[in-house]
Amino acid sequence: MTQLPPYGALLGLSTRRGEDGELLWVMPFREQVIGRPGFLHGGAIAGLLEFAALGALYEALGTREGVTVKPINVTVDYMRGGIDHETYAGALVTRLGTRVANVEAHAWQQDRARPIAAAHMNLLLKRD
């Protein structure tokens, strides 16, 4: 994995591959990601979802070179509070066009079937 931007390093993010080869992002529960006592901060969850979405998009593009990615809009749905466990996120590129990409990301803790948050991102692709 390449070096993370400072915000990713602050969140303690790392990656691993799921059993099906899917790129998963992992955020440990630690002091830097706590909002109210005992729960994840919403911004930390949103940051994890953003890294997962961008990671899936860059894999779909096959490279970072020659493409600049800029968010058009981001919607995050919070479904339940994140508690004292590792948090995982994965994403799926639902549309990859010439100029726009749409990506969905989901975050969960102990059970993927019980997500704690989801994000929908529309991204502008500027190709050199």
Give me the secondary-structure topology:
Elements: H1 6-11, E1 14-17, E2 23-27, H2 42-61, E3 67-78, E4 87-96, E5 100-108, E6 117-127
Antiparallel strand pairs: 1-2, 2-4, 3-6, 4-5, 5-6
What's this entry about, in short?
This protein has about 130 residues and is an alpha+beta fold.
Q: Cα distance, first to last residue?
A: 24 Å
Secondary-structure-based class equals alpha+beta
The whole-angstrom Rg is 14 Å
- In round numbers, the mean pLDDT is 93
Helix content: 10-25%
Count of individual beta strands: 6
How would you describe the oligomerization state of the chains in this entry? single chain
As a percent range, the share of strand residues is 35-45%
Biggest beta-sheet profile:
6 strands, antiparallel
- The helix/strand series, from N terminus to C terminus, equals HEEHEEEE
Give the strand line-up of the largest sheet: 1-2-4-5-6-3
How does this model look, in words?
- By secondary structure, the protein is of the alpha+beta class.
- The chain is 20% helix and 40% strand.
- It has helices at 6-11, 42-61; strands spanning 14-17, 23-27, 67-78, 87-96, 100-108, 117-127.
- The chain has a six-stranded antiparallel sheet, with helices on one face.
- β5 (100-108) and β6 form a beta hairpin.
- It is globular and about 45 Å long.
- It starts with 5 loop residues before the first helix and ends with a strand.
